[in-house]
From TrEMBL:
This is Galactosylgalactosylxylosylprotein 3-beta-glucuronosyltransferase. The record marks E208, N300 as: Interaction with galactose moiety of substrate glycoprotein. It comes from the Eukaryota. One of its GO terms (cellular component) is Golgi membrane. UDP-alpha-D-glucuronate binds at P76, T77, Y78, D107, R144, R149, D175, D176, D177, H290, T291, R292.
Length: 313
């Protein structure tokens, strides 16, 4: 009787072992929920650009960040009581834009401590340059920030001259006092040569915009000097890195440049009106505003004793 039981046990044993092994293989194939937080993510790691909030990008199709053209934003800036406040607002916007490289150009003979400290803590890729505007050009009515924008262009060209097939990139000029929506960066990122869009609160009107017919720019809606070849504000266009590199001599001019003609003088060197790519729903949406910050009232500053500590504002 005992030997019968034993022989049955031996007969069943391999089958029991097979069932256990099959069950084990099956369970090890099951997903590991705790270790797989990203659904559908590809194998490559994400960029090293640090944590970026995903706000405003939820609906966009997910592209790996590495495939996006870099946006280079050239910002001229100069010392004044509101400077740090302006730069703070700008950095808060730029920090939410993927693959944005900030080229901050101080209108100064040397890098200031304030801007250097600010850049160090800004939390986004930033190149800090400086060039002073010659005194003779610091007069009302004369174009501002010519030398600073040219310094940004020179840096960009120098950086890419040793990289034969240039990385895809888009350049735009971001004054430190304007207001930029995040949607604007999505629009400009697809610039092939030169793209344009409306600008709010400029030219003595609620907005200026390129007039578009059948997908092409055919004129300008503006309140000021409609005879300009490109009646557009500095905040109203972007240029591909390719175009910047293939027109190495294109710069902002001092000599021969009339007030308000900086944009036209520059754009004439690199494109034609026919070639412009309208963005922002055929130039019917305002995504950037030419805001200007009120001059601060510091009338009481000299009237009283200064604070005992020195505080950066
Ligand atoms: N800017 C500068 N140096 C100056 C005046 C202005 O670098 O002496 C910068 C300023 O910080 C801004 C840009 O040039 O980023 C355009 O200046 P502003 O905003 O005063 O011009 P507007 O609003 O009249 O176009
Ligand atoms: Mn301004």
């Amino acid at each position: 009787m005992k030997s019968l039981l034993f022989s049955r046990f031996l007969l069943l044993l391999p089958w029991v072992l097979i069932v256990i092994i099959v069950l084990d293989i099956d369970s090890s194939r099951a997903p590991l929920p705790a270790l797989a937080p990203r659904g559908g993510g590809g194998g490559g790691g994400s960029g090293s650009g640090g944590a970026r909030p995903a706000a405003g990008r939820a609906a966009a199709p997910r592209r790996p960040e590495a495939a996006l053209p870099t946006i280079y934003a050239i910002t001229p800036t100069y010392s004044r009581p509101v400077q740090k406040a302006e730069l703070t607002r700008l950095a808060n916007t730029f920090r939410q834009v993927a693959r944005l490289h900030w080229i901050l150009v101080e209108d100064a003979a040397a890098r200031s401590d304030l801007v250097s400290r600010f850049v160090a803590g800004a939390g986004l890729p930033c190149t800090h340059l400086h060039v002073p505007t010659p005194r003779r050009y610091k007069r009302p009515g004369l174009p501002r920030a010519t030398e600073q924008r040219n310094a940004g262009l020179a840096w960009l060209r120098q950086r890419h001259q040793h990289l034969p097939p240039p990385q895809p990139g888009v350049l735009f000029f971001a004054d430190d006092d304007n207001t930029y929506s995040l949607e604007l960066f999505q629009e400009m990122r697809t610039t092939r040569k030169v793209s344009v869009w409306p600008v709010g609160l400029v030219g003595g009107r609620r907005y200026e915009r390129p007039v578009v017919e059948n997908g092409k720019v055919v004129g300008w809606y503006t309140g000021w000097r409609a005879d300009r070849p490109f009646a557009i504000d500095m905040a109203g266009f972007a240029v591909s890195l390719q175009v910047i590199l293939s027109h190495p001599k294109a710069v902002f001019k001092r000599r021969g440049s009339q007030p308000g003609m900086q944009e036209s003088d520059f754009l004439k060197q690199i494109t034609t009106v026919e070639e412009l790519e309208p963005k922002a729903n055929n130039c019917t949406k305002v995504l950037v505003w030419h805001t200007r910050t009120e001059k601060v009232n510091l009338a009481n500053e000299p009237k009283y004793h200064l604070d005992t500590v020195s505080i950066e504002v």
